[in-house]
Amino acid sequence: MTRTQVLLLLASIAPGAALADSVEAAPAPADLVAAFSAIPPDPPPKELCADAHFVKSDEEAHWLFKGAVTGLGGVFVGLGTDQNYVMAGWARPDVLVPADFDQVVVDVHRLYGIAFLASPDATAFVRAWTAPELPAFEERVRRAFEDPAARARMLKALRYARPFVEMRLRWMLRAYRKHKVAFFLSDPDQYRFVASLWRANRVFPVRGDLTGDKAFAGIAAAASKAGLPVRALYLSNAEKYFDYNKGFNEAMRAMPFDDRSVVLRTAGGWHVPDPKGKDPDPLYIFLVQQGMDFKAWIRDVKPRGWKPLIYQRKKTDVRGLYTIPGPGSRRPGSR
């Protein structure tokens, strides 16, 4: 079954899928779908970080990125799982490309798509991930994937990820309510928009390795072919685990950033502890860099990894949020 057939089938069984107004994405044109469907996956990794599947984020304060991404449009490329949908609700991208080198994480995104298409609102979406709803979710998976091997793989991913996803969704509802930040699970318009990205065939999960030479170069090529800027590239803390290599540098140089594009990343262990314990996220700081400044770093400084960039971070007036300037603003004596 082709990707389009899967989405049409899911839409046909999804209650509430016929909604259409200004808060929803328009159906993607065929040339856009063709360009992004052609993104080649990277080979699966020989081993996983910490030998674990990161089917939920452990970062706690993505709301720190809200101001940087709101209304960006364009293409949103992001590692990880749930945080992509949080930020997509603010960014309103034309295309969402969740990318991860772990096939299980990529499969979890397809499960997210099934849940979005079957859930008319956020309450139903969260309920879809609960244990009592597992048989219904499994049936949707069986109907969506005709190939026995793909169906078995997706069912395995569902049974593994379901409790973690439910836990994370419920945690986000509490945390975002506490911080008074609207997101896709609390704002009906944001939910409808994010769900509509799946109905409109504008979400393209891909197995992508930042050190590979296929997926991220393919993302850059697809965005360029579609005439869309990559407005947000969310790297989480993945840069911690590799040195910049030829594949990474070439893919970053090829990204069609414009003057509104941002690169978002997190970094663990860089906090100056707050004696009052009021860090928005006790594990990570959150960093925003202009996309064109990142390209300049790659072009002019050729850092082997992320640390030279992190050393240049500048505080903002929001605790836990930093910016990274272009290479012309490097601190004297820094690496």
Radius of gyration: 19 Å
Q: Helices and strands: which structural class?
A: alpha/beta
Query: How many domains is the backbone divided into?
Result: 2
Uncertain parts:
1-21
Biggest sheet layout: 8 strands, mixed
Number of helices: 13
What's the pLDDT, averaged over the residues? 90
Shape: globular
Q: What's the end-to-end separation, in Å?
A: 51 Å
Tell me what you see in this structure.
This protein has 335 residues and is α/β, with parallel strands linked by helices. It has two domains: 172 residues; 99 residues, no CATH class. The chain contains 13 helices and eight strands. Strands 3-2-1-4-5-6-8-7 form an eight-stranded mixed β-sheet, sandwiched between helices. Helix 4 packs across helix 9 and helix 5 crosses helix 8. The radius of gyration is 19 Å and the shape is globular. The N and C termini lie far apart (51 Å). The N terminus is likely disordered.
